[in-house]
Design goal:
The protein is of the alpha+beta class. 18% of the residues lie in helices and 35% in strands. The chain has two domains: 124 residues, 2,3-Dihydroxybiphenyl 1,2-Dioxygenase, domain 1; 150 residues, 2,3-Dihydroxybiphenyl 1,2-Dioxygenase, domain 1 (Roll), CATH 3.10.180.10. The N and C termini lie far apart (44 Å).
């Protein structure tokens, strides 16, 4: 049984509260206060208890991506598959599961060293049971059974990492994007886009290079181009750096821009992403990333 969707991301930050302010004031997410976990921030995007959990632990990086299984039975099947494939994992404690609002989860690393948390059964404590209401008037994020969006992870040994996600976790291929080397003597840039068991074009992508923050970017999708534009206005008003200007991707049709969040993680904020029937889809191979726009910029120096 393949993974259902990207359920949440766990991020760490050096400056306590920076991601909470960014998530609320810029992205339009809703902060949820949990008295038992006052040292963490929880950002809500829909009827799930949260989609982003932020811990202040002295570093800026992605700590883990949380992947949802559709049922307890599917969860047991994936654990059996992990064991059969010789993949080591550890069980999350009851306290950790409670913090993540899940019934149970396991923690493991992919071949590139990225930490994954595979879980089933999102629980809904009273403090998280409120209806989603965006402080910035976002009508809705495109989530539900498709999960929170997508994440792009560093994978210098991209073939081995790709094989793990495909053969062990059951992801399917969406697109193999190959772009010219950014500088003479450097390798070509390659991104492998992979879908989970939902219609979103990709819930995961692998990039053939490293990242100092453990994440190439994450993506949130909204329901209109006006909400993308309004967010871009908030980004510009706050003087936040962009990783890429407004543009539209070729492979998933997403119209988006990329803003650099506190600590250096890039967030793609988009609209109009493809939803596909995998029974009739043939994976693509691309050599062009964008229909228009998306002028990429180097991250600001420290």
């Amino acid at each position: 049984m393949p993974v259902a969707n990207l359920g949440y991301l766990h991020i760490s930050e050096q400056q306590a509260g920076a991601w909470k302010s960014f998530g609320v004031d810029i992205l339009g997410l809703m902060a949820v206060e949990r008295s038992d976990y006052s040292n963490s921030s929880f950002l809500k995007a829909d009827d799930a208890p949260f989609r982003i959990m932020v811990s202040a632990n002295g570093e800026d990086r992605l700590l883990a991506s949380g992947w949802e299984m559709a049922s307890a039975a599917a969860y047991l099947e994936i654990l059996e598959q992990l064991t059969k494939s010789g993949v080591q994992y550890s069980n999350g404690s009851d306290a950790e599961a409670s913090e993540r609002c899940v019934s149970e989860f396991v923690r493991l690393q992919d071949p590139a060293g990225n930490t994954l948390e595979i879980y089933h059964g999102r629980t809904l404590p009273e403090e998280c049971a409120c209806d989603f209401e965006s402080p910035q008037g976002i009508e809705r994020f495109i989530t539900r059974d498709m999960g929170m969006g997508h994440v792009v992870l560093p994978a210098p040994d991209i073939e081995e990492t790709h094989n793990f996600y495909k053969e062990v976790l059951g992801f399917g291929d969406s697109d193999d994007l190959r772009l010219p080397a950014p500088a003479e003597g450097a390798p070509e840039m390659r991104v492998l886009f992979m879908h989970a068991d939902n219609p979103r074009h990709h819930s995961l992508a692998l990039f053939n290079g490293p990242s100092p923050v453990g994440c190439i970017h994450m993506m949130l999708e909204v329901g209109s181009i006006d909400e993308v534009g309004s967010c871009l206005d908030r980004v510009n008003a706050a003087g936040l750096p962009l990783m890429a200007s407004l543009g539209r991707h070729c492979n998933d049709n997403m119209l988006s821009f990329y803003v650099i969040a506190p600590g250096g993680i890039a967030v793609e904020y988009g609209y109009d992403g493809l939803q596909l029937d995998w029974n009739t889809f043939t994976p693509t191979v691309s050599t062009v990333g964008d229909v228009w726009g998306h002028a990429y910029q180097a991250p600001p120096s420290e």
